[in-house]
Amino acid sequence: MKNRYQSSFSQDTTLISKLFNLLEIVFPGAELTTLAEQARKLGAAWEDASIPFVRFDNDGSLIAHVGVLEIPMRLMGENAIVGGVHAVCTHPDYRRRGYYREIMNEVLDYCDKRYETLVLTTSNPEYYQPFGFRFIQEHSFTTSINSEGSVNETRLLNINNIDDVRLLHRLLETRAPVSNIVGIVNEKPLFLVNEATRPMYYFPDLDTIACMSIQDNELKLYDLVAPKIFPLQELVQRIPQPIQSCSIYFSPDSLNTEAQASPEMLDGDSHLMVRGTFTPESQKFMIPRSARC
């Protein structure tokens, strides 16, 4: 028997526009429509990646949604398909009526038959604890670097250039996990939603894309997309600016560098919530920014 709330973007062609209308109301300023449209232009449509669980009002308007997508991960050296719960929202006029609980119960029934692990990130962890999700502390990593800068051997990726788009797709399809503790393999939709409107730097001789920024001689490294992960020093010596320190927002076990781990939540309040088995739970790690949902 078909689930009560599970729907389909392909069978209901009006659903995607109704969803983004709701998301703009619930998350004003998040620019989710813009992010999703950019990802769509680059070849990763929201409706191809996410399974919607929705509730409508009597007049056909969308009043609540929970999305489920799949995230291919490397966890403690093993490949796994993890379920990602995302875009959880209820219209403000319809809250405290039990709609969220009803949909989440169906979502969990669906997911428990398919995934050993569910993940999500939220600024409101208390909403998910009643459903068996638990908070797991993540860590960032810092290391000192003494680089005076060099000849520039990087360039900004241009997502309006078809050759750069093909390059991005190739590397996403063939990427090595940035970490064997928690890494991502062959995933596009989340990456493109999370990163395509941010600067991405290409290191041609390393065939590597870096999601990074530099401020006050500090390199902030959020993700690397490459068939092979090179040591951190290999990246730094190709950056023209002087670098004195590096903050790494994923486990640096593949970077051949010593780094100090510190508890941190990305963006200050991005709590990682997990349900089910999560083999890296006792390790120090952070899910890369590009794969957070």
Automatic annotation (TrEMBL):
Q: Name one GO molecular function term.
A: acyltransferase activity, transferring groups other than amino-acyl groups
Query: What are the alphabetically sorted keywords of the record?
Result: Transferase
- Domain named N-acetyltransferase: which ranges? 7-158
Pfam families in alphabetical order: Acetyltransf_9
Superkingdom to which the source organism belongs: Bacteria
SUPFAM superfamilies in the record, alphabetically? Acyl-CoA N-acyltransferases (Nat)
The molecule here is called GNAT family acetyltransferase
